[in-house]
Each structure stands twice: as C-alpha cells, then as structure tokens.
Amino acid sequence: MSAPIDPALAERVLARALANGGRFAEVFAERRRGLSLAVDESRIESVQSGAEEGAGVRVVEGGTTYFAHVDGLDPADLERAADEAAAALRGERREPRALSARVTEAQPIAVRPETVEAERKAALLRELDERARARGGEIAQLTASYMEARREVAVANSDGVFATDDRTRARIGAQAVARRGEVVETGAETLGGHRGFELLEDDPGAIAEQAAGKALTLLDAGPAPSGSMPVVVGGGFGGVLFHEMTGHGLEADHVQKGASVYAGKLGERVAQPLLNAYDDGRLPGEWGSDAIDDEGAPTQKTLVIEEGRLVSYLYDHLTAERDGVASTGNGRRESFRELPIPRMTNTYIAPGESTPEEMIAEVERGFYAVSFGGGQVDPATGDFVFGVNEGYLIEGGRVTRPCRGATLIGNCLEALTAIDAVGDDFFMKTGICGKGGQKVPVGTGQGHVRVAAMTVGGTER
Amino acid sequence: MSGLSEAARRALEATLGAGASEAEAYAVRDSGREVRAHGGEVESLTAATRTGVGVRAWIDHRVGYAYGTDLSAAGVAEIATRAAEAARIADPDQFAAPPQPDPPEPLEGLGDPSVGAWSAARVAELALTVERTALAADERVAGVEQAVYADSAEQVAIASSAGVAGEYESSSCFAYLQALAEGEGARETGLGFGLARGPAGLDPEAIGAEGAGRALAMIGASKPASRACPVVLDPTVAASFAGLIGNALGAGAVQRGRSPFGERLGEELASDAFVLHDDGRDPAGPNSAPFDAEGVPRRRTALIEGGRLRSFLYDTYTANRGGERSTGNASRHGYRSLPTVATSNLVVGSGTASEAELLAAAGDGVYVTDVAGLHSGVNPVTGVFSVGASGRAIRGGELAEPVREFTIAGELVAMLGAVRAAGAEARWVPFGGSVKTPPLLVAELAISGS
Questions:
Q1: Within this chain, do residues A269 and A337 fall inside the same structural domain, yes or no?
Q2: How many Cα neighbours within 13 Å face the side chain of B391?
Q3: Which of A303, A312, B333, B433 has its Cβ near the most Cβ atoms within 10 Å?
Q4: Of the candidate ranges A81-85, A104-108, B88-92, the one whose mean pLDDT is the lowest
C-alpha cells in the first residue's frame, strides 16, 4: 500500500495551514486496520474488524498549538483540517520549506497477520482455552483475546520533514479464573510485539498455562502483609514499576511545567550507582518500538539514568524546542485524533549483577512482587500505587507463601533511591500506557530489582 | 430522515446484502473542541469532527462486528462485507439476536445551545479563568499543570433489520484543572472539575477554587498509622466505588461467574443507608439518552434499595440469556465497539446528614478525598480491593491533618453493608462512569500507612 498522504498533497496542506501565519505546521495522516477476537466460555466471540482513516493538522504560533482533525484522507478532508487549524490565527501567510523524504526502515514483519486465515486465529484461541483448562478442574474460566493492528502513517512538517512508517502489532492475552469452594482467584498473561503472526508461531498456548498457573497458585494464598518492608520486584513486567515511578517524571512536558519531581534534577544523583536505565524505541520487534515517532523523528535509544545520575529527559518536538535540545523521538499519539506528547517507548532498567536468589536470600522479612495488575503515579508529587497480581511473602531469606490483594505504595524519589540490587535476568513485557487519555503500546523491562523499603498495603490484620 | 439516519440505513441494507440474516447499523457524527490553558496562555486549541458507522451482522446466531469512517457507498459496502466475514468466524450463541423495536419516549434537555454559540475565544477565556482563579486563591498555589475545557455535540442514529430506528442529538462539556501547591518542602496536587450540557452551565471560578483548595489542603501530609477505622468517602471517591459496584452488577459479569454479586439477587447485603439506581433518563446525567447503544429505551432501574439487591443491569443479549427484559443498558465507546452491558448514570441515594455530621459520626478516622490505582487494585471477580488513597485525618469528629501514601483495603460487598450514612449533598462526578453521589460514611475499612 502507498503512504496515506503523498508529498505533493502534504505540501499543499502545509501551505494552507500556514495561510494565517505560524512558526510550525504539521500534517499527520494515518490509515488504521485492525482485527480482534476473543474466546470466553470456550466460544469464539466479539469478532471485530475496524478500518479508519484520517488526518490531524497543527499550526504552532507563540506558545499556542492550533489543531484540527478530520476523518477521511481525500484532499478535501485534509484541506478542511488545515483551514480549521488556521482559522484562529491572524498573521501573515508563511511558506513551508520544500519537503524532503526521510527514509527510515520499518520494523520487519515476516508474516502479515491480515494474510493469515481468520480460522487460524480462532484455532489459536481455542488452543489457549484447552491448554488452560487442561490444568485441572479448579480452572473455572478462561478468557483469551487476539488482536492485530496495522497503522500506516505519514507525517510532514513545515521544516521540510516527510517521513512514513508502517506498523504492525500482534498481541494475545489470557485470563484464568480458578475456584475452590468460596475462594476465587485470577491470573493473567500476555504476549505481544511490533511483529506479525510469526510472534505466535512458537508455542503461544504457553501463556494460557501460565495464567492458569498463577490463578491456581493464588488459591493457596493468604492475606498480604501490611507495612514498610524490603520488596523484591520480579523481572519483565516488574519494569512497570520503573515506568510509573520514574519514566513519567522524565517526560519533558511534566518537567517543563514544574509538574515532575525530577524537574531541575538533571545531572543529579537520583538512584544508587548500580542503576542504569534507558528508553529505547528501536528495540527490534518490541511492543513499544516504531521506526519513527509520530512527529517524523527517528526513534532512538536514550540513556536516562547513568550509574544513578539523571542524564536525560524524554522529548517531543515542542518540548525539545523549548529546552534547546533535539527531540529524543518520543513524540507519540494514539491516533490522528490526538496531539503528540512526550511518551515512553520501551523503558527498562539495564541488567545488573545480582541473581534473584541472592536478592531474596538477603531479606529477613519482606515481600516478593512477581507481577503487577497495573499502576498509577502523580508525576507532580511522585506518589505512586501498584496493584500486585502475583506476590509472595519472604521470610528468613526464603519465599514462603503466596499473598493476595497486595498494593505497593510510595514516593518515587525515595523508592528509586532505595533500589539496592538489580538482577542479571533481564526480559521485556508489553503494556498499554494511558497518559493524557491517549493509549499507546509501551514495553517495560528489567531483571529482578530489590527496593530496600516500600509500603505494602495488604489486608492482613 | 437526516443524512446520518440515511447512512445507517444504507449500512444496514449493505450488510443484509453481504449475507447477514439480521443486521444493525449505529452511526455517530460529532464535532467538538478542546482548549488547554497553561501559564495564562492557551496552550492548544483543538477542533474535532468525527463520523463513523459500526455494523453488527448476525448469521445464524453468530455475531460479527465491523466499523469504519468511510460512509461512501463503496466504504459502507466494505464495512458490511467485513462484518459478515467476522460473523462467520464467531461460534453460534443461541441468545445472540437483535432487539425487537420498542419506540422510546422522547427525552428533552440533552442539548444546550451555548455549545454551538460560544466562540473559541470565549471558551478559551473560560479555561483561562479556571487557571487564574486557582492561582489567585493562595500564594502557596505554585502553578496549574493544566486547565482544560472540552465540549462535544453528538448525533446518533440507529437502524436494524428488526425494525429499530431512532436518532437523537446531545451536547456535553466539562472543565477541569490540576492545581499544584507547595509548602513544607513538598508539592501537592488538587483536582477541580465541573460538568454541564454547555459552557453556560459551568462555573469556572468554582472549578479553579476547588482545585486550589484540594491541593492546599494536602500541604504537610504524612502517612497515617495502619489500623481499621471509620472512613468518610468524599463524592469523587464514593463515585469511583459506585462505578466498581455498577460494573459488578452488569448481568454479563454475573452470568459468566465473574461478579461478587452473582447468585445474590434479593439478598439483604447492603445497609439501608446505601441506595443505588441506574438512571439513563435523568436530563442532568451525562450518559442520558432516549435509547441505549442498541436502540432499547433507557430507563431508571433500582439496583440496591432497602438493603436488598433488586436487579442486575441487562442489554438484549444478557436479557435473552437470563430470561429477563433489557434494562436499556447496552453501551459502547462510539461506533468503534460492540455494545456490551454497562451502567448509564449511577445515582447513589442522598441521606440527611451534613458533611459535619458525617465527620462527627465518624469520630476518629480518615476522610478520603482521592484514590489511585483502581484499575489494578481491585479484583472484579471477588470484589477484594486495596487502593492507594489520600485525604485528611478525622479527630474528635472534625477534619485534622492531611494524610497521604496509604492504602484502604476491604471487600466491595462487605463495604456496602458497612455504609452507616449518606450525606445530604450529592454531585455529578465523571469517575466510575457517570455517577451522582453524596459523601458516604463507612463504619470500618483497613488503612495501611506507617
């Protein structure tokens, strides 16, 4: 397929957007296609197929962004968007620079999901259902979903940038409910990537067994402890802790508004020297990767914390301009209907030198948080909260029993400084981040990490 | 018939032509704008238009869904084809069928002409006023992260092969801010918000003052001691919990064994002080409409009254499956999603107690003004929750020092039994869906702090 907008039309739209002045104009055009289906009660249902196209045009003048978006990619639609964005300006016409195409290689996709027969996708979900139920009669329910999405985007701006990307993502998820008498527990697992159907060729059914295993484990759980204690956080999805705790506070929009606890801390020590952390939008095949960001800047690997010192924020075009630096390729948007804002891509704590066993062995009484249901942070205050899906009590240096209903709560400045061990067992997981009401795919990763003291909010009396 | 109803009709016919035995088309057109203000300037001004159609196709009790933005004849034909293809992948479900027509009563009061009449400059001034009021409230207000105004005027049309046909228009707007206050070496945030049908119905000064007041009240906050104690939930927090309860009362969750309220219809499980209705026709309710997302009339449904669980919420599918009648609670996120059962507007019954009386009745406890992590801290199947919270300590029946960084934990159904009193003054809150609620006094919840 061709790009959703060609350079000649983009130039005309940009010229129109600058009809009443403006120091910067941009058109972002997009074609979206997607398919999703689910299995519930062993029945394939909720089969949904979507196709949308549209564009957003913005003009920036002074500190104000004028933005308009429309459904449709006909020249008339795009011109209407440009006219609406320009409508509130009162200045002199400006000419955009001639466009020169920026070529970036899209992430390679081996098997385009749309070329795979729908029945194979349904069969995959049936397999997930069977694999989970094979874990025994205590598995009362299994729901699983499959989704594929393709976004073809093109972005052009008055600085002469014209860039395109062709993004394909696939993801499956399984949630199991286990029941023993009155006790009901759930377990969930996902697998996703900026990849095609090849992602699902190597035993995807394993995630259903893992989800079922978690739910079954929790049947034997007791209440979670309460109070401040050492917390060992599991690898992979444990990285959501860093995403929430620190990553959001590094996004330059929060920083520039003074609404981040990391504002004014560049170059300062914010963690112990054993901690290195990155945001990397180029990791091959990862869920949060793209070739370019949604402003046409190539994605990149950005070192944000180097040996415990804060070394970079995450920038989009406008926040980079304001700080007099280059964009770090973090300008992202959910769709053509939204303005880009600084967002994480794949954010992770780099592997350290401890083994998970060592970290746990050194804890007299503490909590082991293997995976989270999600989290939330107020970047301005640094207060965060995480719901733990799978957690265990640590007693005498050993993991002793599973715990249900635990929440971790704290302040990110204190908690990040309190990380006193980083594991060597690095891996990545997929997430959906909802900053500003815009959902974008993000990767989170790390090995095991130990926080010397954090508040665990459980139900144990 | 409007252009939108015609588009729905065309999509319906195309879907029948693509091989569906029954079909339904749901078309939406809306226009809206958004202003973001920061530092006394307009940070962004957005003009948005959206048009799309979503089509449900039934083939022998198999359901498929497709949607798109292209309403041309060719575009609609492609959507219809995809909907029929989607239906062929699904497994048959004997309860899957389109609703029979039941013409709704008209519902007045869903629109406000000020949405269209106020210029961009005028609504921008509204957002700037919200920010300015907060900044002027107190010198400790260090800034406003964002003051936002947004509105939308929406038109919805539906048509089905069973004979459902309807159309309505509504408008809505909201404004909010996140104020930042500094003091005692720390920074605090406070949310202020307002909802209305049009900008004329918003009070920007009140919104700004609320954000500033909430942020200022938190200065100097510390962790409360861990204990079990009485808790007063302010309306924003009560709304979040009401939303969780409303979701658990959806018949979909109940029928699939994923609700803590399953098998408990008619049981006495709440205190008399907690009364809950779903009301899809209150003209002040943001989600009110003459009909729901599949054309069934919206109505008012008693959920919890006299301490007893009175009803679940049904759409057509769950009603067919449960041998009940739809309560008009089919819901969808615009044209892009299949209808599923969900609350419309939840209304928590008001009591007679003033806020001071609720605090006095609590004696010693915590007044919770904010909760965080609801999507991760609540098990929707069991109702067990542990969520982050902040607010004020209650000592000797009065508000005392601010408290933060603690969790409140418990179990949803048990909490309903522990509600001791509902306040007299209710407000509409956009959390937990759309909820109108007073503050609530809960006899005991577990607090985990220091």
A1: yes
A2: 25
A3: B433
A4: A104-108
Q: Is residue B293 part of a domain?
A: yes
B121 and B231: one domain? no
- Between residues 161 and 200 of chain B, which touch chain A (CB distance below 8 Å)? 178, 180, 186-189
Q: What pLDDT does residue B186 have? A: 87
Q: Are the Cβ atoms of B258 and A45 closer than 8 angstroms?
A: no
In a domain, B222, yes or no: no
Q: Does residue A1 fall inside a structural domain?
A: no
Tell me the pLDDT tens digit for each residue of A240-264: 889 988 999 999 999 999 889 999 9
A286: distance to nearest CA of chain B, Å? 24
Query: What sign for the dihedral angle of Cα A372, A378, A382, A385?
Result: negative
Q: HSE-up of A396 (CA within 13 Å, CB side)?
A: 2
* Residues A229 and A180 reside in one and the same domain: no
Instruction: Tell whether B305 is within 8 A of chain A (Cβ).
Output: no
ipTM: 0.92
Q: How far is B323 from chain A (nearest CA, A)?
A: 19
Judgement on whether residues A192 and A303 belong to the same structural domain of the protein: no
Q: Check if B220 contacts A (Cβ < 8 Å).
A: no
Asked if A192 and A101 sit in the same domain, the reply is yes
Domain range spanning residue B42?
3-217
Residue B172 lies in a domain: yes
Residues comprising chain A, all counted:
461
Predicted confidence (pLDDT) per residue in A366-385, tens digit: 999 998 887 888 888 888 88
Calculate the CA dihedral of residues B327, B333, B339, B344 and round it to 10 degrees.
-10
pTM for the model = 0.94
Instruction: Identify any residues that bridge with B398 across adjacent strands, giving them in sequence order.
Output: B395
Number of domains in chain B: 2
Q: Is B49 on the interface with A (CB under 8 A)?
A: yes
Scanning every residue of chain A, which has its alpha carbon at the shortest distance from the alpha carbon of B91?
A44
Provide the shortest C-alpha distance from residue B69 to chain A (in Å).
5
Same domain, B189 and B267: no
Q: Please check the confidence at residue A1 and state whether its pLDDT lies above 60.
A: no
Q: Are residues A139 and A201 in the same domain?
A: yes
Alpha-carbon distance of A98 to A3, in angstroms, equals 18
Fill in the amino acid letter for A279: D
| Residue A243 and residue A213 share a domain | no
Pick from B158, B189, B217: which residue ends a domain?
Answer: B217
> In the listed set A189, A204, A219, which residue is the last one of a domain according to the structure?
A219
Q: A280 and A426 in contact (C-beta within 8 Å)?
A: no
Average pLDDT over chain A, rounded to an integer: 94
Query: Which residue of A381, A384, A404 is in closest CB contact with B189?
Result: A381
- Tell me which residue of B54, B150, B374 sits closest to A51, measured CA to CA: B54
d(CA B217, CA B210): 10
Contact B410, B445 (CB under 8 A): yes
Q: Are residues A164 and A272 in the same domain?
A: no
Contact in structure between A253 and A342 (CB atoms under 8 Å):
yes
Range name among A440-449, B356-365, B373-382 with the lowest pLDDT average: B373-382
